Amino acid sequence: MKHFASTLAVATLTATLSTAAMAEVTIKVAYDADPVSLDPHEQLSGGTLQLSHMVFDPLVRWTKDLQFAPRLAESWEQIDETTMRFKLRDGVTFHSGNALTSADVDWTFDRLKASPDFKGIFAPFTDVEVVDELTFDLKTSEPYPLILHTATYIFPMDSQFYSGTTEDGKEKAELVKHGDSFASRNLSGTGPFTVTEREQGVKVVFDRFDSYWDTASEGNVDKIILTPIKEDPTRVAALLAGDVDFIAPVPPTDLKRVEEHDGTTLITEPGTRIITFQLNQNRVEAFKDARVRKAIDYAVNNAGIVDRIMRGFGTVGAQASPAGYLGYDESLTPRFDVEKAKALMAEAGYADGFSVTMMAPNNRYVNDDKIAQAVASMLAKINIKVDLQTMPKAQYWPTFDERAADMMMIGWHADTEDSANFHQFLTHCPDETTGNGQYNSGNYCNPEADALMAEANATTDQTKRGELLRKLEGILYADAAFIPLHWQNLAWGARDGVHAEKIVNALNFPYFGDLKVD
Amino acid sequence: MLAYLVKRVFQAIAVMFAISLIGFAIQDNLGDPLRELVGQSVSEEVRQQLRDELGLNDSFVTQYVRFLGNALQGDLGTSYFFKEPALDVILKKLPATLELVMGATLIIVGLSVPLGVYTAIKPNTILSRLIMGISIVGISVPVFLTAILMIFVFSVELGWFPSYGRGDVVHVFGYWDTNFATADGWVHILLPSVALASIMLPLFVRLIRAEMMEVLQSEYVKYARAKGIRPYRIYFIHALKNTLLPVITVGGVQIGTMVAYTILTETVFQWPGMGFMFLEAVNRVDTPLIVAYLIIVGFIFVVTNTIVDLIYGLVNPTVNIARMGA
Question: Is the Cβ pair A184, B81 closer than 8 Å?
Fold first, then answer.
């Protein structure tokens, strides 16, 4: 009997020890912003997608090298020109305990189609047809090449959880953009984390979901405390002081500090957001002349801007598509040659130059106002006198919509991670009915380029599509349709022992579910 | 006294009305709130539809009358970002700000009196010169710079204090969580309080010093000295009492100013109070919240000024409050 008791004691002791050894892994994360809502369909923004990857899970997701990896969809096949059949992973449950089925995907798809922010992306899609519990067809009206790109935006929601009405009689599924709703405060996804506490703008606490399906993942973080820290110096100080374990973004001025500081690591990746200037042909007669546009492109020293102003923290660009996109053409190189620029100006009859107005935001893109100043002084060398005005983004966007200056700065990241998206919004002939060229403040219009885009968007053969998009980029380059500057790089800072380099990507939503911490 | 109070209440209402009108008038120039609410690729048509839903396309007068009608019923609008009544959002953030102001006030009161008195009594010692020198620097360095410097010295390099946030707070009642109940809370509030105090402290040291020096020249102090009353009694009982009168008036007004200064301090220290919230609201073009903030801060100014006038009357009964009201 005594022997038994001691065995029991040893057993208890071992059990206690092993739980102690499996102590909770908690990490503190500081971002420059927090998600606006817990509703994944309320706003199409980086913050929302970040949250979606933590508490929901997409059908497929991007890998580090911009390929597709299966998540909730185990496999897929094109069964006819306009239908892609997906097979869902078996045994996935939502946080509520409900099992994931095709019906949830169908329900989520309908909600996406109704969301003001997402319906644009889902416009080519007509329906989700449920085949059986775990199989469904995603249908498009016409052959469409970006089915998987779009599937990265389908984060199935728990249709049972979000159905019905709340106590005060509101629909739980209701999508409210500027008010309170059930979905903006409650959630049930299939993701690695659940939200256990949230004070908007102050902190969000995520707890590991015990029944998460991805047991193969090496992620071992049990709790994440996300604090939005908007001030760059404070965010960096918090990391260096050891108050937080992971920060994003690291501002260009502090890259070195984070890299050289003992106990922290700097992680960088080239980003996919291109920064450009547009030349308004409706306001300035000279901008209608391709030689003048080209002269400006030749006068702007992109590499110098990246080197001096961005402190090397950008990738010099000569086109809209970053490397890795189908339309990226490596033969298009940045133009910089002041003599040539002067010659082109003279050839076009503007040797004496002219005056233009320029506008740029001063808190939207990294160093945006400094970049604008640099470009203005570079243009002075070819006798273009620039009257520059910078303003906060809140005032900038309405001004941009009015096309209030001759040259305006705009940065763009393709929601679809696809080259055609840049053209659709930035350089397509402006067309109010289709919304194409919505951000084309230059009023550049080239039917040949538009035709290429239309053809590319109806071509499912990726090789052929790549050729079309590269040809499109070539035309825009030859025409100097806009002035490309650089793609902003991305930077994260982590405490040593937080293996964040494996989970970050060019799209800037780290996969925290897979994060391993020593 | 009553007549005076009634008059002040009417003044306060008039000021609130003016503030609401100004706040409302500038909101059109703050930018387009829709840009912050929707993604970049949302079409103009959809945005226009949302503007209609929000009532942003109505005329200024329609919008203002609607706002005023709601405000009179205690509804200052709903924050776009927090999706809650703007008044609730501010009331939730208010305790953090008030505690920060309280912390800074404690530091100012605790340090300015001894430092001011000392530099007045012994104006020529090295220590006095040092204090005066530092106070000049303190006045001229902007508060956000002080704050960032302190973070780098005391958080990053020395690791003594946390760099951001409020730390462990203890719930008191309603929306009030306090920093003053835990050690962690004290550690968190210290740096921000010092940063906030850094602008006002030198001002008060100099003010008390100047007043004190003047008082020390007065006849009754000379008389007291002649009578052989011990120096510390002269300094701290007789002289200081008269020194503090103008200091209280200035101090009361400065507390209101300090609430405004919290915008910078809170932003740098990520202090979840209403100053930080206001700056964010401006960035997000959260117009209902901006207008509500202006009204509340205006209200705090008016209330502190009224209280200061009343206290002034109590400390110095020769001031006839009733006549001030007439």
Answer: no
The domain segmentation of chain B, as residue ranges, is: 88-283
Q: Give one DSSP letter per residue of A300-359, joined into a string.
A: --HHHIIIIISTT-EEE-SSSSPTTSTT--TT------HHHHHHHHHHTT-TT-EEEEEE
Q: In B, residues 249-268, which contact A (CB 8 Å cutoff)?
A: 267-268
Q: What is the pLDDT of residue B259?
A: 79
Amino acid at A186: N
Q: What is the pLDDT of residues B288-313, one digit of tens each?
A: 899 899 888 888 887 877 777 777 66
- B325 pLDDT tier (thresholds 50, 70, 90): very low
Out of B31, B49, B159, whose CB is closest to A394?
B31
* Whole-number CA gyration radius for chain A: 26
User: What whole-number distance in Å separates Cα of residue A306 and Cα of residue A301?
Assistant: 9
> Would you say how long chain A is, in residues?
518
User: Mind telling me how many Å the CA of B92 is from chain A's nearest CA?
Assistant: 11
Answer whether the bond into residue B272 is a cis peptide, omega within 30°: no
Span B120-153, pLDDT tens digits: 888 889 999 999 888 888 888 888 888 888 888 9
The reply to whether residue A237 touches residue B54, judged by beta carbons under 8 angstroms, is no
The band of A140, judged by pLDDT with boundaries at 50, 70 and 90, is very high
Contacts of A141 (CB under 8 A, 6+ apart): A82, A124, A125, A126
How far does the CA of residue A178 sit from the closest CA of chain B (Å)? Answer: 5
Decide if A139 touches B, using CB distance below 8 A.
Answer: no
The reported pTM is 0.83
Phi-psi region at B174: left, alpha or beta (left = phi > 0; alpha = psi -120 to 50): left
Query: Which residues touch B125 (CB under 8 Å, ≥6 apart)?
Result: none
Global ipTM? 0.79
Which CATH architecture group holds B88-283? Orthogonal Bundle (1.10)
